[in-house]
UniProtKB/TrEMBL annotation:
Protein name stated in the entry: ATP-dependent dethiobiotin synthetase BioD
UniProt main location, coarse: cytoplasm
Annotated Gene3D superfamilies: P-loop containing nucleotide triphosphate hydrolases (3.40.50.300)
Binding sites annotated in the UniProt record for substrate: T41
Any single biological process term in GO: biotin biosynthetic process
Function of the protein: Catalyzes a mechanistically unusual reaction, the ATP-dependent insertion of CO2 between the N7 and N8 nitrogen atoms of 7,8-diaminopelargonic acid (DAPA, also called 7,8-diammoniononanoate) to form a ureido ring.
Binding site residues for Mg(2+): T16, D50, E109
Subunit (UniProt): Homodimer.
Cofactor dependency: Mg(2+)
Species assigned in the record: Streptomyces violaceusniger (strain Tu 4113)
Length: 234
């Protein structure tokens, strides 16, 4: 798995923080990591974007952003309103392949959820993943509502012939409620893919050194970690 595309069930779900955890776990194994954010929206020039946040938390990763649009909108809309060219799936695929030639792992973070449009033709992150033949990791909420949103996303991946290695819970509450605890078993059942990790609530506020040390404990062996879902449900 040299290129891993990271999507979520929506925006602000924890894709960036989960990407940082996956990067940290890979780095801890001695793997080189690059992070590609094809379209960064809602961030002004010169301000740190998602890729910079991954580097802050995870450490020494190569960062690449293909385009930045200041308005916090879907990339296609933000590009159109900015009067700038959109990011095309083939550009994402080419950039990721180039990074993959020089790194052990390339993480590609989408914008919002899977079917958010990148250009006026309706191209999405799924098209880039298909060009790359890359698996797509889904980041999801822990609690009520996540079964539907996660299952819609994994179904959309399956319909498109894309591989989904599993789901990571973007923020696992310190005191998990009933729905969250039930979802540990129900999410894999409903979505048809395994749970591959849970990032504890508060993780991005940890000192980065602690984030890096702890990250492998939040992720399953498939993502270079040592986590086991059984512990969550306990
Ligand atoms: N485990 C967590 N505990 C506490 N806060 C979190 C956690 N994960 C993410 N957050 C916070 O929630 C917000 C959204 O997280 P993040 O930026 O990772 O989401 P995203 O899905 O990448 O969003 P976007 O769609 O904007 O790229 C951020 O302020 C982040 O610091
Ligand atoms: Mg993000």
């Amino acid at each position: 798995m040299s290129v891993l595309v990271v999507t979520g069930t929506g925006t602000e779900i924890g894709k960036t923080v989960s990407t940082a955890a996956v990067a940290a776990a890979a780095l801890a194994r001695g793997r080189s990591v690059a992070v590609l954010k094809p379209a960064q929206t809602g961030v002004a020039e010169g301000e740190p974007g998602d890729a910079a946040e991954v580097a802050r938390l995870a450490g020494a990763v190569t960062l690449l952003e293909l385009a930045r649009y200041p308005e916090p909108l879907a990339p296609a809309t933000a590009a159109r309103r900015a009067g700038r060219p959109p990011v095309r799936p083939h550009e994402v695929a080419e950039a990721a392949e180039k990074l993959a030639a020089e790194h052990d792992l390339v993480l590609v973070e989408g914008a919002g959820g899977l079917l958010v449009r990148f250009d006026e033709t309706g191209a999405t992150l799924a098209d880039a993943a298909r060009l790359l033949g890359a698996p797509v990791l889904v980041v999801a909420h822990a609690g009520l509502g996540t079964l539907n949103a996660t299952t819609l996303t994994t179904e959309a991946l399956r319909v498109r012939g894309l591989e989904c290695p599993g789901v990571v819970i973007g923020s696992w509450p310190a005191a998990a409620d009933l729905a969250s605890r039930c979802n540990v078993a129900d999410l894999p059942d409903s979505s048809g893919v395994p749970l591959l990790g849970a990032i504890p609530q508060g993780a991005p506020a940890l000192p980065p050194a602690d984030f890096r040390t702890q990250a492998p404990g939040w992720l399953a062996p498939r993502l270079d970690g040592s986590w086991d879902a059984v512990r969550l449900a306990a």
